[in-house]
């Protein structure tokens, strides 16, 4: 079910980034020659980093306190596990 | 552009929480009696399934405005954006009393232990992990192995354990083999694949990682790592396989006893014995995966994020030092 959060995050991305990931085959072997390309494949990049601009609270209490202080609605993403990590 | 506007709305008009319904539902009765859980229960009491997975907009007073997750398995950002905008408009139409209620939660209202109550010591080796599968046949966005998804994780080593990543003698050409327990933490906690597998120590067939000092100038020591990794699981719960290689490079400051840079990169084939209907699609059982471990930049948005497997496969020394 963790796919939900990353699906949500991925849906925030520009399609250009996804198209690159899907069309360019990363190196078959890891060597010092291919090292940087493999790193690029594993890294988050470009618009994939958009979600990092959001100051995510990891729990409801911290969210309620800040929402109360700033008089703002609270957007709660509730799924299984830590959604900033694994999917 | 739509996604950027959505993020702007989250940043400027809302407070954003990413948490676990499962963890809240699994709390003890004593913890559920506290204000935080009661607030969450009250907020979602209008939702058919109570505290359940989803994306919800609520007021600080504990009133549900909307459930805004639309689209499956690919969320409909356009519709979510519209729903969020409507929620914000609805929020602003409420009276102050309806928006905020009468009280703000206090620290004593906390129901769920959070990982950021104690900082991981600065002298430790604190790594951030990203991993992504390669393109594979029949891949669909439903599949957790799809290369559109990245697994992000954390990996920690204490100040003493950190020294295992440098050879005993810091002279150019010096070589050493990494201690198995250091490499095991990487493997058993699945840092080289996407998702998680239930590896056991006896599943590790090869974990040979060597290190070599390639230059030593003043206090700065450049180290290269090279390794072969192989796991074959054979338990009731896991029959996965992994076969990969590792390269890495780091610069160690011998004066300040810290890494100025650190990278471990792996590329390997991750095999799954049984595809699961709630996680996978198609018939491809083996997928290539690239992973990267780097010094953790400690992003603000990742505050409170512990290793996914914490505290499994961590030494007593590390666990005791970080008892929350």
3D architecture notes:
The complex is a heterodimer of chains A (87) and B (324). With 87 residues, chain A is mostly helical. Helices cover 41% and strands 6% of the residues of chain A. Chain A has a domain at 3-52. Chain A has helices at 3-10, 15-23, 35-42, 60-70; one strand spanning 74-78. Chain A is elongated and about 55 Å long. Chain B is α+β, with helices and mostly antiparallel strands and 324 residues long. Chain B has 2 domains: 2-112, no CATH class; 116-321, no CATH class. The longest helix of chain B is centred in the first third of the chain and has 17 residues, at 77-93. The mean pLDDT of chain B is 92. Chains A and B meet through helix 1, helix 2, helix 3, helix 4 and strand 1 of A and helix 1, strand 1, helix 2, helix 4 and strand 2 of B. Strand 1 of chain A pairs antiparallel with strand 2 (54-58) of chain B.
How would you write the strand order of the largest sheet of chain B?
5-4-11-10-9-8-7-6
Secondary-structure element sequence of chain A? HHHHE
Output the radius of gyration of chain B. 23 Å
Radius of gyration over C-alpha positions of chain A, nearest whole angstrom = 17 Å
**Low-confidence runs of chain B (pLDDT<50, min 5 residues)?**
none
End-to-end C-alpha gap of chain B: 41 Å
Proportion of residues in helical segments of chain A: 40-55%
Helix content of chain B: 10-25%
Q: Report the β-strand fraction of chain B as a percent range.
A: 25-35%
Which stretches of chain A are low in confidence, meaning pLDDT under 50 for 5 or more residues running?
A: 12-17
Q: Which shape of chain B, going by the Cα principal axes? A: globular
Compute the number of structural domains of chain B.
2
Give the helix tally of chain A: 4
